[in-house]
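Hi all, long-time lurker, first post. I run a small reading group and we've been trying to get comfortable going from sequence to structure in the token notation. Rather than ask abstract questions, I figured I'd post a concrete chain and ask someone more experienced to write out its structure so we can walk through it together at our next meeting. Sequence below, copied exactly:
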Amino acid sequence: MKQIRTSVWSIDRNLPIANVYTLNYFYTKSVARVSFTMLMLGIAAGMALVLGAIGLYGVIAYSVVQRTREIGVRIAMGAQRNDVIRLFLREGMSFIFIGLPIGLAVSVVVTRFLSSLLFGVRTTDPLTFATVAVLLTIVALAACHIPARRATRIDPMVALRCD
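-- Answer (accepted) --
Happy to help. Here is the structure in token form:
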């Protein structure tokens, strides 16, 4: 700031200088609202991802509890543990294979409203959509795998006595 005043006063000593700011200051102030909005949207998206994973985990875990007797019979009849895991993974991933295309279609429509907040990225950026789809699939796999793995630890004799 002192250098700016010195430079200006070297040209004209009588020129008053007040409120001297750098260009970076004005840039920061101009994008502050957009940055805050994007931060809040990012937090909301992260919470939605966590809540979705918890919900999917809850549904699959409930299904495991409800089917304890069936799992015990399957294991007692010789089903491999990997078959039981695959059964619940298939069930959980069916939610993803139904919900993911619907979610992608809705997000293509909704991103039109967010176009004013995006810089250097198109609203329908294929890389972003693919990355999110892969991330959601990985989270869903993890949410399904935990109860499925727990189902394989069921002792057939305890499961048959259940109810």
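A couple of things your group might point at:
The CA atoms of residues 24 and 30 lie 10 Å apart.
The chain has one domain: 33-161.
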